[in-house]
Amino acid sequence: MVDLFNPTEEHLALRRMVREFAEREVEPQAAEHDAKEKFNLELFRKVGELGLLGINANVEYGGSGMDATAAVIVCEELSAIDPGFTLAALAHATLFVNNLNQNGSEEQCHRFLPDACAGKTVCGMAMSEPAVGTDVLGMRTTARREGDEYVIDGSKMWITNGAISDTELGDAFLVYTRTADAGSRSFSMFIVEKGTPGFHLGQKIKDKLGMRASTTAELVFDGCRVPVSNLVGEEGDAVSHMMRNLEIERLTLAAMSTGIARRSVEIMNTYGTERTSFGQPIREFGQIQRYIAESYASYMAGRCYLYETARQLDLSKGGQRIDSDGVKLYCSTMAKEVADNAIQVLGGYGYVGEYRVERLWRDAKLVEIGGGTLEAHHKNITRDIQRIDKLR
Ligand SMILES: Cc1cc2nc3c(=O)[nH]c(=O)nc-3n(C[C@H](O)[C@H](O)[C@H](O)COP(=O)(O)OP(=O)(O)OC[C@H]3O[C@@H](n4cnc5c(N)ncnc54)[C@H](O)[C@@H]3O)c2cc1C
C-alpha cells in the first residue's frame, strides 16, 4: 500500500508524534499568544527538544537528518493547531537551519547548528528590505571587505524571529547582501549574530493581521562588522543559496496552508452536524453541503500536489521550482478560501475566536504574500513552463 502522505513508517510515526504534541502542548496557548502578539519561547525550546527544529539538518550537527516530506509533515501538523507559532518554527528550521546545513561550511555548521537544532537559539533569514521585496535582486544592503572583516550597511524588513520580544533581537540570521554592483554573482550571504557591533533591532512590527504568535522585525546594519569566517560559501554564491532554499520554504509554507485547511474542514464538518436550523442539522442544506464538500475536495487536491512535490524534492539539489511555486500558489489561496467557507458555515460563531476559524482565516492570508507573492508565482511558473512542451 502506498500512502502518499506518510510514505514510510518513520513519516507516520513523526506525524503521530507531532499531532499528539500539538494537541497537548500547542493548542492551549494558541489563542492567548495570538491575542497578545507574543512569541512562546518556552514552547519553541520544547519543539527543539523533540528534534523538529533540525528536521532536515545532518545528524552530526544535531539534526534529525530527514527529508522534505518530513518537514512538510511537521509544518502541516503544527499549523493545523497554531499557524502563527508554526511560522516561527519554519523560519528557524527551514530558512536558517536547512539553508546553513545545505550551504554552510563544516566549521559553520558545527558552530551554529547544534544549538539551533536544539532550540537553544532563535534564528531566521533576512532577504526582504523596506524598499525591496519581490524584486529581491534589487536589494540595497551592502557588504564590503576590510581586511579580515566584512562591513554590512543597510536594513532588512519583515524578518520572522528578528526579535524575540519588543526589545530583544533573535540570536542569529542568514543575511543576504550585495557585494558587487552588477551581475548574478553580486550577492553574498553572511551569518550575523546578536551582539555583533553595528547590528540592531530597528523595530518589532506590531498590529499584524495574522501570524501574531510569531515576531516580525526590522533589522538594521550600521557599519556592522562580521569576520570573514561568517561568509557562507564564496563571495557571489548567494543567488544559488537563495534559489535552492526557496523551494523547501515554499513547500513548508504550503504545508502550513494544508494544515489550516484540514482544521477548517474538521471544524465545519462537526458544526454542520451539531447546529440545527429549521428543525434539522445544517449539513442537510444543499448550500452548506457545497461549502463542506468543495472545501474537502480542494484540501485533498492541494495536499496531493504538495506531497507529490515533496517526494521529488532533493534538498541538496533543488530543481522543483515550477512545482514549489505551483503548490504554494494553489494551497495558499485554497486554505484562505476553505477557512472562509468555515466561517460562513459557522455563521456568527465563525466570526469570533471561540471556534478558531477566524484566526485560521487571518493566518492563512500571509501565505499569499510571504515566501513569494501570488503574482511572483504567476510570473515564475509562466516563465518556467515555457520550456516544457509536454507535461508529464
Ligand atoms: C509576516 C511576514 C513575515 C515575513 N518573513 C520574512 C522573513 O523571515 N524573511 C524575509 O526575507 N522576508 C520576510 N517577509 C517578506 C515577504 O517575503 C515579502 O513581503 C514578500 O516577498 C513581498 O514583498 P513586499 O512586501 O516588498 O511587496 P512588493 O514586492 O513591493 O509587492 C507589492 C505588490 O506588487 C506585486 N508585484 C511586485 N512585483 C511584481 C511583478 N513583477 N509582477 C506583478 N506583480 C508584482 C506583488 O505581488 C504585490 O502584490 C515576511 C513578510 C511578512 C508579512
- Spans of at least 5 consecutive residues whose pLDDT stays below 50 are none
With helices defined by DSSP (H or I, 4 residues minimum), what is the helix count?
A: 10
Structural class: alpha+beta
Architecture (CATH level 2) name of the largest domain: Up-down Bundle
Give the full name of the CATH homologous superfamily of the largest domain: Butyryl-CoA Dehydrogenase, subunit A, domain 3
Q: Indicate the overall shape.
A: globular
Largest sheet: 4 strands, mixed
* Integer-rounded radius of gyration: 21 Å
Order of helices and strands: HHHHHEEEEEEEEHEEHHHH
CATH topology title of the largest domain: Butyryl-CoA Dehydrogenase, subunit A, domain 3
Estimated share of beta-strand residues: 15-25%
Distance between the termini: 23 Å
User: Cofactors and ligands present?
Assistant: flavin-adenine dinucleotide
Overall number of domains: 3
Work out the number of β strands. Answer: 10
Helical proportion?
40-55%
The protein's oligomeric status is single chain
Record the SSE blueprint.
Layout: H1 9-36, H2 41-49, H3 68-81, H4 83-103, H5 106-118, E1 123-126, E2 142-146, E3 149-160, E4 172-178, E5 187-193, E6 199-204, E7 216-227, E8 231-232, H6 238-274, E9 276-277, E10 280-281, H7 286-312, H8 321-346, H9 357-366, H10 374-385
Helix pairs in contact: 1-3, 3-4, 3-6, 4-5, 4-6, 6-7, 6-8, 6-9, 7-8, 8-9, 8-10
Description of the structure:
- This protein is α+β, with helices and mostly antiparallel strands and 392 residues long.
- The protein has 3 domains: 9-122, Butyryl-Coa Dehydrogenase, subunit A, domain 1 (Orthogonal Bundle), CATH 1.10.540; 124-235, Butyryl-CoA Dehydrogenase, subunit A, domain 2 (Beta Barrel); 239-385, Butyryl-CoA Dehydrogenase, subunit A, domain 3 (Up-down Bundle), CATH 1.20.140.10.
- It is built from 10 helices and 10 strands.
- It has helices at 9-36, 41-49, 68-81, 83-103, 106-118, 238-274, 286-312, 321-346, 357-366, 374-385, and strands at 123-126, 142-146, 149-160, 172-178, 187-193, 199-204, 216-227, 231-232, 276-277, 280-281.
- A 4-stranded mixed sheet has the order 1-4-5-8, covered by helices on one side. Strands 2-3-7-6 form a 4-stranded antiparallel sheet, covered by helices on one side. Strands 9-10 form a two-stranded antiparallel sheet.
- Strand 9 (276-277) and strand 10 form a beta hairpin.
- Helix 1 runs parallel beside helix 3 and helix 6 (238-274) runs parallel beside helix 8.
- The radius of gyration is 21 Å and the shape is globular.
- Bound molecules: flavin-adenine dinucleotide.
